[in-house]
Amino acid sequence: PSAEMITLMWSFIVSIYSIGGLLGSSSAGYLSVRFGRKKALLLANIPALLGAALMGLSRLCGSFEMIMAGRLFSGVCGGKLAFLPVVSNKISPKKLRGFINVTSTVFLALGKTVARILGLRDLLGTEDMWNVLLSFSGLVALIQLLFLPFFPESQPYLLMQKEDKAGCLKAMKQLWGEGNYHTEFDDLMKEKAMTKGTKIMNVLEVLREPSVYPQLCTMLLLLLSVQLCGLSAV
């Protein structure tokens, strides 16, 4: 292929991750309500494993289409994990919620740093090892798939969606240890009463809702500022 076509293919391989992220984040809310938070996180790792396998085998098969497909699936996984901070916030005790919320951002930055280091030409950023580097995320997805089934479901999901009071209290004790959690349980009951009858909106319905325009504008301005400040280039 010509140099222009190679540039086009390379650009598409890079950007298709964001397209997958859009698809993943758009369906994350539905999956978390339909299957529960824990199962949704488990499902999110399946595209990551598939994407890692495709990118790992792409060099052996000599197929750039496999790299595109792998990047797309990896993006779907990344988009679905957007609700991870929400889950970690809900399952953590009140006194630790601020700290737990920050850990998602910290480990995201740490993961990017590790990826940059592994991508150095002295490590995995070589002509012989680049496919290993691209498929490295599959290892993390596999670890999550192995260990997540042993964790309890989110307490708010058990109480509000499943109306399982006993399961909610059991999950609290599993996550927080033995103790009296009636205060936290009462808070969840009050939250359930306040949100009773509230419809869960999809993305298009949120965009059509005038009452959330100030929040949406604030988020968009913040995200655009981050993208345009030069941080990504650095």
Structural notes for this entry:
InterPro entries: GLUT, MFS_dom, MFS_sugar_transport-like, MFS_trans_sf. This protein is globular. It has 234 residues and is mostly helical. The protein is built from twelve helices and no strands. Helices cover 75% and strands 0% of the residues.
Helix and strand arrangement:
Elements: H1 3-35, H2 37-61, H3 64-80, H4 84-91, H5 97-118, H6 130-134, H7 137-147, H8 155-161, H9 165-176, H10 182-195, H11 203-207, H12 213-228
Domain Major facilitator superfamily (MFS) profile: 1-234
GO molecular function, one term: D-glucose transmembrane transporter activity
GO cellular component, one term: plasma membrane
Number of strands: 0
Strand content: under 5%
Unreliable sequence segments: none
CATH class of the largest domain: Mainly Alpha
Q: How many domains comprise the coordinates?
A: 3
Fraction in helix: over 70%
Fill in the CATH topology of the largest domain. Answer: Growth Hormone, Chain: A
End-to-end CA span = 31 Å
Mean pLDDT: 82
- Number of separate helices: 12
Instruction: Please tell me what the overall shape is.
Output: globular
* CA-based gyration radius: 21 Å
How would you characterize the largest beta sheet? none
CATH H-level name of the largest domain... which superfamily?
MFS general substrate transporter like domains
- The ordered string of helix (H) and strand (E) elements is HHHHHHHHHHHH
State the secondary-structure class: mainly alpha
CATH architecture of the largest domain: Up-down Bundle
Membrane topology: Multi-pass membrane protein
Domain Major facilitator superfamily (MFS) profile: 1-234
Subcellular location: Membrane
Keywords: Membrane, Transmembrane, Transmembrane helix
